Amino acid sequence: MWALRDVSFRVDEGEILGIIGRNGAGKSTLFLVLSQILAVDEGTVDIRGEISTLLTISAGFRGDLTGLENIHMSASLLGLSMSKIREIENEIIAFAELEEFIDEPIKTYSTGMKARLGFAIAVHVHPDILLMDEVLSVGDESFRVKSQERIHRLLGSARAILIVSHNLEFIRSHCSRAIWIEGGTVREDGQPEDVVRNYIGFCTEIRKRIEAQSQQ
Hints:
Layout: E1 16-20, H1 27-34, E2 51-54, H2 67-77, H3 82-96, H4 111-124, E3 129-133, H5 141-155, E4 160-164, H6 168-174, E5 177-182, E6 185-190, H7 192-214
Parallel strand pairs: 1-4, 1-5, 2-3, 3-4
Antiparallel strand pairs: 5-6
């Protein structure tokens, strides 16, 4: 059984691409392929530019290192020199709102603190392509607003952003394009309003069918 099959699309500079679909549809597998963590068995993946990947809220963090040490480690893995990292580390810390905890081991951080730090690192290294998997669903409302504002600032720098999310309102309101994945294939690719509407209709029909079967 294929996790992804006959998936083909192109993302241009300046696009915010939202990827939606039910659990197990293949969304996260697609991101693992795009981030070059998984290799494809067939076909090709052509990536032109530097990628910053935020697939999980604590991706790449080491629990025994402090928040600051994790900033240095993660940013260096993304290709930044130590001199550049030191230039932006205070901006990252302030954005993540972790000034009081940055010298504490990250294993003592809450899930929300790790999410804020991971997001702050990812968006401050100025990647050509930013991949985010459900990270916007974590954190309080003020941080979510700030995160969305930062995404749009990145868009102004002609970078491509790909977001997997179950937050359909965010996809509809903030993405320039949407892809719906179902059963490992692209079911629809188009305007977010149209794709989200058709996806909601599909999910509604599935739910009605299940309810009808349960009543028999």
